[in-house]
Records
---
Amino acid sequence: MGIRQRGQITQIEKDLRYQLFHGYLLFITVFAGIFMMVHIMNHRPVVNLITTAVIFAACLFLYFTSRFFKKYHVIRIFFMVAIVFFFIPFGYWTSPGSDSAVIYTIILVVNMITFVAVFRWEYLFAVIACLETIFLLQTELWFPQHYISYANKEDRILDLSLILLAVCAAIIITIYYVMNRYAIHSEQLYVASVTDSLTGLYNRRYFNDFIQSEFNRANRYQEDFSIILLDLNNFKKINDQFGHMTGDQVLIEIAELIRKNIRSYDVAARFGGDEFILIFPNTLKEEALELFRRLESAFEIYSKQYSKQHFAVSYGIEDSRGKTLEEIYKMTDSLMYKKKIEQKKHVVETIDR
């Protein structure tokens, strides 16, 4: 099996409908087994025992064929055809009809088909099941002699109770499972939309929204915050000499250094290609600079492995006291650029010596 095929199977297995389908098959298998025992203990007609035994064996067979022999789509269609055109009419005709629990079973069938259908046309099976049930109800008026009511009321109540329990359990579990998966998926989408895919830090889009809300909050409560803009000097040399994979790894490792050396409530984001930006809430410039020293030391230790490329970090720090958001950005960027020029001069002087 090729890599592409394995990837396709893995993707299918992640599909919610795939998981529900196999859950339903096991669910039906369990309840068919329970009813087999009930029919045996209550000495029910042989046809009832055979029906439940066939359902038990068929669902178990379909589960293993679909799951382990990779025939999911074929088995799913076969399941819907069999359950709509064979199980419903045969089950209705071999039971006391609407006087039995078969109506509840049909509700469960419609629910299952609705959740496991992949293509639009497959929802027709659920519609057919509903129309078929209406037709079968009418047959009780046309052929009342065929539908013999339960002689034992206790048997009827037992069957109704078991099927009602199964239907309610299946619907509740399905809705809970779907909503839980939806919540997880929504959270994953949100995280993907606000984080940088390479470094795992917040992206610029999230940062722009956050700093605006932080600026508004700080003004409302008469507090201040500081931002630090970081730029990786000579990062292009690392890309050129070692390749972009090494460059990406450097960005990942720098992001990890940032995460480890800031406070839990500070916010760090990848601002551009090799630029990072940090927000220190409720922190003035002097305090932010002290907090940054630990991070700067970590940078210096890390950059030694690329000393031949003169890899370094330049930065600008400014707080929000008495400034607009635009002024904070401009001042921070100006300070960072000034630091960058100083470092380049230092490198030139070192080379000249």
---
Amino acid sequence: MSDIIIPAVGESVTEVTIASWMKKNGEFVDMDEPICEIESDKASMELPSPKAGILTISATEGDTVDIGTIIGSIKPGERPAGSAKKETAPSAPPTSSENSGNSGLASPAAMKILRENNLDPSQVSGTGKGGRITKEDALNAKSGSAATEKPISSIGSLEISTPSGNREVTRNKMSSLRKTIAKRLVAAKQSTAMLTTFNEVDMYAIKSLRAKYKESFKEKHQIGLGFMSFFTKACCIALQEFPKVNGQIEGTEILTHNYCDVGIAVSTPKGLVVPVIRNAEKLSLADIEKSIRGLALKARDGKLKLQEMQGGTFTITNGGVFGSMLSTPIINQPQSAILGMHNIVDRPMAIDGEVKIRPIMYLALSYDHRIIDGKESVSFLKRVKELLEDPTRLLLDV
């Protein structure tokens, strides 16, 4: 008998949540076959079977357990004959009440709604495959039936109708990752003197540069040339000129870093994660693009390792990909600042005494006023603006 034990998944992680069991109780599993998914406050991971045998489950989905907890066991045994492939039982023949007048059956959920509301399935049009009546079809039929009986109140000549319809409320437990995100964001708001300063960037030069060289860049480096590499490079130069923006408070001391470990906020189906590009100040635009692409794919697939999300000194978040015009991003503690990018919009600008249409992006720098003064924050953002509006500065470091 081999116990299934929750392993240590990181220095600061003391408990995990069992997100889902991928195998059933009593089912045969192979060695190293994924049997359940666990979530920590930083990431999710699959737990493999330590041995081949019969699975016994002793913890349920949604349980939060400590590191080292036994959540099940594997009893040695042979794979049962025929267990490699499960045969699907044939569906029961349709009853006259379920299929009368329709080319398909009503689903169990649909049939339950129809029976509860004394509705004849033969009078309901099915939109499912083969004319099958879906739950939505049944709800629409129910609404149509109720609409004929909706109450009407008269106030003089004014009639007020009370429409009927589906009013469902869904309740889901927060995942460990979502709970931790919530806790950290609230803590950042409550424990820092957070302030946000804004500026705007004319993206004409960068857009022109991309349009001119994007094909040759991709052909040589096998990666597309995006905006994030320019912003990351510009921030690295500005961070080295204004080191407190790249620092943090630890107790009564201010720590600054001579390197730039830049976190890139990535939205995933399970929540926001911030993988880190190490020593970004030493990377080329192509290297930065490849790092961002690799980390984003890992984040999307839930394959990020804990060490890939720890130790950042500064963060960049891009709400513009979702259409955000302006926002005040929240600091990713223990860092002291975060840069928010937004969408690019053509706007009229006064240039050399003439009004011209230019692609403009608003930038937001949220910073901890305890360590960064207003002069430093404004100067940092102005420096980033200069570097982006004249990309030659990025190459010459001037």
---
Amino acid sequence: MKFYHEGAKEIPIIAETEILVAGGGPAGVGAAIAAARCGAKVMLIEKCGYLGGVATAGMMSHWSGAVHCSLLKEIMKKTAQSTSLPLEYAPELTEHDFNWSIPHECQKQVLFQMMREAGVTVQVHTMAVAVIKDGNKVKGVITESKSGREAIMAKAVIDATGDGDIAAFAGAKYLLGREEDNACQPVTLMFRIGGVDYARAVFPHSFETFIDLPAGEIQALGKAHLPAPAGHVLLYRNLLPGEVTVNMTNVTGINGTDVRDLTRAEMECREQMDQIVKFLRKFVPGYEKCYLTASGEMTGIRETRHFKGVITLTPEDIVEAKVFDDWIAVKNYFNFDIHNIKGAGLDSNGAQKFFRAKGEYTIPYRACVPEKIDGLLLSGRNISGTHKAHSNYRVMGICLNIGVGVGTAAATAVQAGVELRNADIKNVQQILLANGTEL
């Protein structure tokens, strides 16, 4: 590989804050709002032109995993009050209700509104491209945007980038993907279709949802007629009349931290979308006149870097519903949602319908603290956990829940003048309970 030597240059420091959150997806939204509500001076940067990450830019169908999270309930309640929704929309949130579905455009505005109300300084269209360190301590980040290369200094940085870009720049130790071979779960570009007759439509919501149709069983039809590695059928109710959110594109062998792999994923997913629409029209009742209405701005990346924290979350911790002494996120519940690394459907190590656990589990603060890097916390799917454990806590509701805990801990540590790894967790837990967390 050839190299070009870039000369040294002065980078303007455009902001100095107490807490900088990198990434405006669920984990970053939770961290920023929670830290600001604790009285900290907070700035959030995001690469897209709006907030929400996978929930909005990724056009995810619905929230799940931590429906007891008070901030998630608040987000959904405010979203339901949007005047841009259909006039007949009157949600009543229950644990299994499809009203956890996401009206993407309305939620974008709601998240901006909540940031303003919390006093968070938001800067979108901004990517973090490097860190500023003093020894092993992160002191800020360097960004790139239409305004050029700039620096933001902070007393604490929260990495909510999903892939853990900040932590990687800082030199934190991590493992990519699956332990034995570094393979990552396949990626998906979500999209919406219109023209669906809800009176006759079916909505298979998992790989293990089998529905008999006139032409055959729906998952078997998908495997037989969709282009590999696509082949499963996942269709979700939407809050817009006649629209359905589709989770059926599938590309394997993608490293979500490599721009060339990401480019290939985008192109292959879009090629699959046309074939999926044709498949639905031909085989699935109620979808005979369906058509593409919108697609995500970003491909959904399920798995990349798992960072080495003070402790590592395991599948046994989840199945045993472990309550850690240093919990910062509680009442998390999901399945081992490991998409087939080699093709369509569920991986042999995954478990959806037949997932069994003793109850809801907690996320320990120590899994959010990099083993050897100070001034930095992990938030979301980049925390310290195994490949299998990650398949459970990677979902948006749990990432939001983690963000709330991490943001609260960062604020208390900064205010007390201690290193992030030395945050008073008992105090953090008291604040979380006072702010709506339910044990």
